[in-house]
Design brief:
The structure is a homodimer of 213-residue chains. Chain A is an alpha/beta fold and 213 residues long. In chain A, 36% of the residues lie in helices and 18% in strands. Chain A has seven helices and eleven strands. In chain A, helix 1 links the parallel strand 1 and strand 2. Chain A is globular, with a radius of gyration of 16 Å.
């Protein structure tokens, strides 16, 4: 099972590393980190660098393709080399998946037309630009496509896929291995309306600024 | 607020990257990834490489020190250069923290004597070797020390610390930003007794083999 994770400057580290640490524990998984150049990419916040091990043209096949998100996706929405690579790999995948705003790249590559999909809550409506039907489910499955909500949802997405691909027992062992028994000190539902409104408007402003460029 | 995350070969990527993506969103956070050598370290499962940006002797102070876990910790339990660096930094920290088996390194550095602490469930009793009192709480706070359960618990640990350091509103904004509203497809409590017993005995065997070396 060849699993390819796309890595790029401005990605959110956890979008990739949550699923990575789930998939890496699946027997028979062979993971490759692919990017535009064979170098260290800088994740969204700067200080953390991830190592790209293969360039896009060196990776012509994936059983499972995973596209993480992060604000760096916006610059790639018109990067033909990336979009055509995603579309080409997709022709041979068993599952094509995204975490967070990685879904915008699947959309820009033309893969979500007429499909239900999710992304980060703050940009969910943007999925319509690509002909997709936004869904607020944490992990959305539609045909061979799997798209998740923002950042931390990648762990839930990957466990869902492992259960499909390798069965319940394997997924259970990974849940134990990662001690995935979350106990958020602040529940998502309890976040105050003020904080929600402030972040939603900051995201909307950033998206508008980017679209205008 | 200077936050130092230790990186090493055989670390579990998610132990570091969960907290990283939380801390990186805290205003004023200045994160540094430190390791034995300035190079790419290979995380536990191999294919993912993280970039070490500073060597231990270049990092003499941290407000918050975070030690991730992974099977690579076992080789470091007798690595004086690492243990004395952890102990030296600890003298100046506001908070010294670990995720998963990172607690074994805090213990080996002499920092957990007489303290309550947690680590991965599979090795929790090993904390007694270092004079610590094992606790099954997901995030254990004892004085300036913060230790968490395995791997994915690092996200809960980091959110707990951000709430302490920067207040509830900042922590709420990060919960939203990471869309941290976990929906595990398999609940930890529902994992079958067979899978639990098999993994517990595999871990015990691995620990015994390592101790015998």
């Amino acid at each position: 099972m060849k699993i390819v994770i796309f890595a790029f400057d401005g990605m959110t580290a956890l979008d990739a590393v949550g699923p990575y640490d789930v998939f890496a524990r699946m027997p028979g998984a062979n993971i490759e980190i692919a990017g535009l150049e064979r170098r260290i990419v800088r994740t969204e916040q700067g200080p953390l660098g991830l190592s790209v091990e293969a360039t896009l043209d060196q990776v012509a096949h994936a059983d499972l393709l995973l596209i993480p998100g992060g604000f760096g996706t916006r610059a790639l929405l018109r990067e033909e080399r990336v979009l055509s690579w995603i579309a080409a790999l997709d022709r041979g995948t068993r599952i094509t998946a995204s975490v967070c705003t990685g879904a915008l790249l699947l959309g820009a590559a033309g893969l979500l037309r007429g499909r239900r999909a999710n992304t980060h809550w703050g940009v969910r409506e943007r999925l319509r630009e690509f002909g997709a039907e936004p869904s607020a489910e944490r992990v959305v499955r539609d045909g061979k496509y799997a798209t998740s909500a923002g950042v931390s949802a990648g762990i839930d997405l990957a466990l869902t896929l492992v259960q499909e691909l390798a069965g319940r027992q394997v997924a259970e062992a990974i849940v134990l291995g990662l001690e995935y028994d979350p106990a958020p000190p602040i529940s998502f539902a309890a976040v105050s309306a003020d904080v929600r409104a402030a972040l939603a408007s900051a995201i909307a402003e950033r998206e508008a600024k980017h679209s205008a460029r």
